[in-house]
Write a structure and sequence with these properties.
The structure is a single chain. The chain has 315 residues and is α/β, with parallel strands linked by helices. Helices cover 41% and strands 11% of the residues. Helix 4 links the parallel strand 2 (90-93) and strand 3. The radius of gyration is 21 Å and the shape is globular. The two termini are 13 Å apart.
Length: 315
């Protein structure tokens, strides 16, 4: 019996063409991007081509995209460098963030004030409470709220939250690891200062990601020791990983258009397809969670199945 993989929120299978492209880079494009000879220039060109693709897909400037080892590093960079370089005195976040944000905020709490915004039953931050927190004069503030929850898929409205942050002269960071490549993000119009992405969440390789830093934000380098990534992240670049990231993200963004063409534009439409298929073959399903969710992520339960049987069948 063929096994179905239902854990794409944790990691996605890599596209075969991405593996092929990465293999070619590893075998043929082996120069150090910092070297001035031909091999180095070829490697540098490959990285900058990838940066241009990522920036274009997000409608950002190429100077606002910095490659990292993944979403965890990207989020750490945005949060820690903001506190270090921008005079942040308070961070507002929620208790349902990914651990790479929660644990980072916990560490930063030694030096800055940490406030938690209330969330509703669907895991969405209450904007009325966020505004109450922002209204209180507690010094320069950074708000960090994830775009889509990695467990239940509930999504915030980046424009609404960002506009609220701008109203109270606060910076806005969002962990967008679950949405990049799956949901359209237009950074040319969104009032946001930092976002993060991780290639293995959209059928790219593990160990490759990026951080978007709005131009003029003014933070310094996260890692010292070299001039890579425009002096923002020292260390020889992962050329093959960056290549795979850009290729996978390009294909996923093209896939978003295909899903819309086929009528799969929300979790509700995807749920209808899955529920119909499973109810005919296996069991009945009950949808849970908020309707404002990622189109590719479902939260459901079934009165006909025990969770332990589902887990054991996939081991």
């Amino acid at each position: 019996m063929e096994r179905a993989y239902f854990d794409n929120a944790a990691s996605t299978p890599i596209f075969p063409e991405v593996v092929k492209a990465m293999g070619s880079v590893l075998l043929e494009n082996y120069g150090n991007p910092s070297s001035i000879h031909q091999h180095g220039r070829n490697a540098r060109s490959t990285i900058e081509d990838a940066r241009k693709k990522v920036a274009g897909l997000l409608k950002a400037s190429i100077g606002e995209i910095f490659f990292t080892s993944g979403g965890t590093e990207a989020n750490n960079m945005a949060l820690k460098c903001s506190v270090r370089d921008l005079g942040i005195q308070r961070i507002i976040t929620s208790r349902v963030e990914h651990h790479c944000v929660l644990h980072t905020v916990e560490r930063l709490g030694v030096d800055v004030q940490i406030d938690f915004v209330d969330v509703d039953a669907d895991g969405l931050p209450r904007l009325d409470h966020l505004e109450t927190l922002l209204k209180s004069d507690q010094g320069k503030t950074l708000v960090s709220l994830m775009h889509a929850n990695n467990e239940i898929g509930s999504m915030i409205d980046l424009k609404d939250v960002g506009t609220l942050c701008r109203t109270y002269d606060s910076l806005f960071h969002s962990d967008t690891v679950q949405t990049v490549g799956h949901y359209p993000i237009d950074l040319s119009v969104l009032p946001i200062d930092f976002i993060s992405g991780s290639a293995h969440k959209f059928h790219g390789p593990k160990g490759a990601g990026f951080v978007y830093i709005r131009q003029g934000t003014g933070i310094g380098p996260y890692l010292d020791g070299g001039s890579q990534e425009r002096n923002m992240r020292a260390g020889t670049e992962n050329i093959s990983g960056i290549t795979g990231l850009a290729m996978a993200m390009t294909r996923c963004c093209e896939g978003m258009e295909a899903m819309a063409t086929n009528g799969i534009t929300s979790s509700a439409s995807l749920y209808a397809i899955v529920a119909h298929s499973l109810s005919q073959q296996l069991c009945s399903l009950r949808k849970s969670g908020h309707d404002t969710k990622l189109a590719h992520e479902l939260l459901f339960d079934s009165p006909d199945l025990y969770a332990k049987y589902l887990l054991s069948s996939g081991s």
